[in-house]
Write a structure and sequence with these properties.
single chain; about 300 residues; alpha/beta; TIM Barrel; 8-stranded parallel beta sheet; two-stranded antiparallel ribbon; 11 helices; 10 strands; binds coenzyme A; binds magnesium ion
């Protein structure tokens, strides 16, 4: 299943939890980290576990949980509290390297055994660029990372604090400043290198629908699949932007057909344009994505 939209829902908000389940988001990320104040941590853990248990049919929408970072003493109690609800996956924030993902994998194995869940069934999405060290350790993912890892996203908010910055925007261009664009690029490359889903960064101006759509289309062009959302208005826009249009699917099919009809050729012409292997690969990606989305109903 391709997850196009991942909607963050504060784990201690009854109202937002209820709203989340009715939302189009392909997955909810029930948050136990930054959206929850420390004095509400216990309540949030209980609410999230009960919610997971009450919503065991995940065929339309997966339910994930963001736990606190592994270097805090909140992470293990977060996990122990929610695993009885069999979340589809865990979102791991503020990682330093692939070692954190592998440590989480071991914790999950132990807790899956305790709960009688299938070993390896709980997946991992990490927020790969929230610490200064994380920008320098992307190679560790290539050296061996748990196959529970199905996606990585990046972040510019915590990273700017970690880098001692006052702001993460470039005042001249109005775009992210250099370190954040580097974080984005490294995240994308690492994801493709280890074959996990590169997930676009959260768009914080949640009233700016047009801006969100533009950014989604740009992310998709760059190679990202799907995006993090923080407001219920965002997932419909994200889903649409990451679903190949009929015109895109038609064109991709024509490219694939063209190569199939000319089996000996590495280069063909279509509509006056030269096409070679990278184009065929892109066309197959579009068709595969469209098919997977169709299968989701
Ligand atoms: N999930 C589910 N429901 C949400 C929601 C979310 N992330 N964000 C807002 N809603 C609900 C609101 O409760 C409200 O429902 P109601 O009218 O029944 O009360 C409705 O959607 C409209 O919300 P709105 O008034 O437009 O926004 P807000 O001012 O209440 O909330 C935020 C704005 C940013 C505080 C809120 O969207 C939010 O909490 N987002 C998630 C933040 C988060 O988890 N951050 C951590 C990850 S970066
Ligand atoms: Mg907190």
């Amino acid at each position: 299943m391709i997850i196009r939209s991942w909607l963050f829902v504060p784990g201690d908000s009854e109202r937002k939890l209820e709203k989340g389940r009715g939302n189009e988001a392909d997955a909810l990320i029930l948050d136990l980290e930054d959206a929850v104040s420390n004095d509400r941590q216990d309540i949030a853990r209980e609410m999230v576990r009960d919610y997971l248990t009450a919503n065991s049919d995940r065929s339309r929408q997966q339910l994930w949980v963001r736990i606190n970072p592994l270097d805090t003493d909140l992470a293990l109690p977060d996990l122990a509290a929610v695993m009885p609800g069999a979340p589809d996956g865990i979102c791991l924030p503020k990682v330093y390297s692939a070692e954190d993902v592998n440590t989480l994998c071991n914790y999950l194995s132990a807790l899956e055994a305790r709960e009688g869940l299938e070993l390896g069934s709980t997946k991992i999405l990490c927020v790969a660029t929230e610490t200064a060290a994380s920008l320098l350790t992307f190679h560790t993912y290539l050296e061996g990372v748990s196959d529970r890892l199905v996606g990585m996203t990046w972040g510019a908010e915590d990273l700017s604090a970690a880098l001692g910055a006052m702001d993460n925007m470039n005042p001249n261009s109005g775009e992210y400043d250099d370190p954040y664009l580097m974080a984005k690029s490294l995240c994308l490359a690492a994801c493709r290198a280890v074959d996990v889903q590169p997930v676009g960064v959260v768009y914080v101006n949640f009233r700016d629908d047009a801006g969100l759509e533009t950014e989604c289309l740009r992310d998709r062009k760059a190679g990202f699949i799907g995006k993090i959302a923080i407001h219920p208005a965002q997932p419909p826009i994200i889903n649409r932007a990451f679903t190949p249009s009929d015109a895109e699917v038609d064109y991709a099919q024509r490219v694939v057909d063209m190569f199939e009809q000319n089996p000996g050729l590495g280069t063909v012409g279509l509509d006056g344009k030269m096409l070679d292997m990278p184009h065929l690969k892109q066309a197959r990606n579009v068709l595969s994505m469209a098919e997977q989305i169709k299968a989701m109903g």
